[in-house]
Amino acid sequence: MSFFLRTPNSDKPSPILLKYYISKQEGRFTYSTGLNILPSEWSVETRSPISKRGRSDLSLIKRNLQKYSDLLERTIEKFDLNNILLTKENLKNVFDEELGKKRKEERFVYFSDFVEDFLVKAPETINRKTKKVYESSAIRNYNKGFNIYTKFEAKNGRKIRIDGFNASVYDSFLSFLQDRKYSYNSIGEIIKTLKTLISKAYERGYKIDEAGLKSFVVQSEKVKAVVFNEEEIQKILEYDFSENDRLQNARDLLIIGLWTGLRVNDFLSLPEIDLESEFIEVTPKKTENSTGVSVVIPLHHHIVEVIKTRGMPRKISDVKFNKYIKEVAEIVGFDQMVQGGVTKLIKIQGETNLVKRKVTGLYPKYELIASHVCRRSFATNLYKMNFPILSIMAITGHKTQSSFLKYIQITPSEHAENLKRFWKEYYSKKGK
Asked: Which of 122, 157, 178, 195 is the least crowded, having the fewest Cβ atoms under 10 Å away?
C-alpha cells in the first residue's frame, strides 16, 4: 500500500490517492482520500507530506493519511479472519461506509473536530463569499490560528463545544495568548481567525453562542512601521553598489518594489518590463484565484533608470531579499534609532524550546527593514503627494479607507506640515 499524487507535476494542489495491489487477478485498488497537497510539499521517497517547522496543515494531512492506512490494515485482517474474499469492490464498499457516507453525515460536537474536518476539505470547498475555492494563503492562515488554539485546548485539558464560546472562554484564551508573549496585534489576528472559523461552523448549520461571541473583541493598534520617504529612496538609488553584484541586484529589486506597491511575491516574479509600454499590468497572486482583478501601474522614472542602466534584475527568493535589503539599508546609512518590532527567540514559562516572538523597542532602522517596507512606502509617499486615496487603494488592494489610513505611516508633525502647506496655497490664491 502507498499514497500517490494524481497530478505530481502540477503547480496547484493535487488529490492524494491510496493504491494497494491486491492480486494479479484483481489488480490494484485505488481510492481517493479527499486530501490535497502541493506537489512541492510532497516527498516521493516517503510517499507522505514533507515535514516543515510550523506547518500544522502538513502534519494534519499526514495524520489523516494514517487513518486510511490503518483502515486498510484492519480490513485486510478482518477479511482474512472471516474468510472474506479480498476484492476491489469489497474494499471500496468498506471505505465508502467508513470514510465516505459517515464523513458526509457526521455532525460534530466539539469545535476542534469540526475545524480539523473543515481544513481537510477546504482545498476543494467553495468559499461562500468569493464563490471560488479557498485560497492557499487563507488555508495557511486558518491552520496557523488553529494550531495555536489546539495548544490552548491541550493546556486546559478539555475540548470546547462549538456552542461553548462565551466570555469565560475568551478571558481564558486571551490570558493564554498573553502568557505566551504574543504581541497586541498578533493576539487580535489570532482571535479574528478563531471567530472566522466559528462562523464557518455557523454557516454549516451549527448552533453557536452568538451573545457569548460578542465578548471576543478583536483588538488592534496602529502599527509603528518603518517607511522610506522620497529623499531616502533617492539615496538608495544613487548609492554605488557596483562592487557588490548581490546587493546591487537586491537594491534594484527594492526600487521596483518601492514604486509599484506590489506584494513581495509579485514584484520579485515580474516578467521582463517593457519600457515602451510605460505601464506594468499584474494580476496579484493573492487575488488570482478569487477576484482575478489585475492592477495597472505606471512606470516610475526610478524603475526606468534602473532597467536602462543594468537591465531587469535577477529573481531571488523573498528570504534572500529580506536579508539583503537590510544590508543595503545599513550600508546606505539608515542607522538612526527608531521604534519598531524585531522577531527574536525568547523563553516562555512552561515551554522547553525557545519560540519566535516580535519584541518591540528601539532599533537601528536598517534592522527593521523587510519586504513590506515597499508597499507601505509606496502608499505613504503617494498619500503625502496628495494623490487621490481611492486611486492608491485601487493599486494596493485596500477595501476601506479606514484600513488604508491605519496602514500608511504619517506622523502628527507631517499632518501639521500638510495643513500649513494647504493654508499657504489657499490664502495665496486670495492675495493674503
From this structure: 157
